[in-house]
Amino acid sequence: xxxxxxxxxxxxxxxxxxxxxxxxxxxxxxxxxxxxxxxxxxxxxxxxxxxxxxxxxxxxxxxxxxxxxxxxxxxxxxxxxxxxxxxxxxxxxxxxxxxxxxxxxxxxxxxxxxxxxxxxxxxxxxxxxxxxxxxxxxxxxxxxxxxxxxxxxxxxxxxxxxxxxxxxxxxxxxxxxxxxx
Length: 181
Hints:
Layout: E1 2-4, H1 6-17, E2 43-45, E3 48-52, E4 57-68, E5 71-85, E6 95-111, E7 116-125, E8 130-134, E9 138-141, E10 144-147, E11 150-154, E12 159-163, E13 171-173
Antiparallel strand pairs: 1-3, 2-4, 3-4, 4-5, 5-6, 6-7, 7-8, 7-9, 8-11, 9-10, 10-13, 11-12
């Protein structure tokens, strides 16, 4: 395993990460904080970065800030699992595909056009475009919010599943909308 500072490896990681969040992810209302980023790339900043090509994992640790044109993810750690096409390794060009991304530690996903998701852990499964939030997950939009033991966001289907547990039921708060006349 090699341990690198994040600035030294950005050119290698950015193409890998450009596919990560090609779909929407639930999040919030901090449009002014979003840096100008090309729509196809994601910029991840952290205190440190570790790459393990044997286990095919990239680990961003400490004050992680991941930004794309329409969302921001803040957390303590992101573990990015990838698959590589070894048929291209002989030519020096390796094809990477994201398998899943695991964000942990006070995860906060904010969308520029409104919405916020918070949890202790968020797992994004690239193949079926699914996000699973656990550890006191809450999803907010304006004054409305929903919470449960587990929240699954099915991005392709534009739907969500909120599950309770033995200890706590699902809770949703929906505020009436004021109509302008």
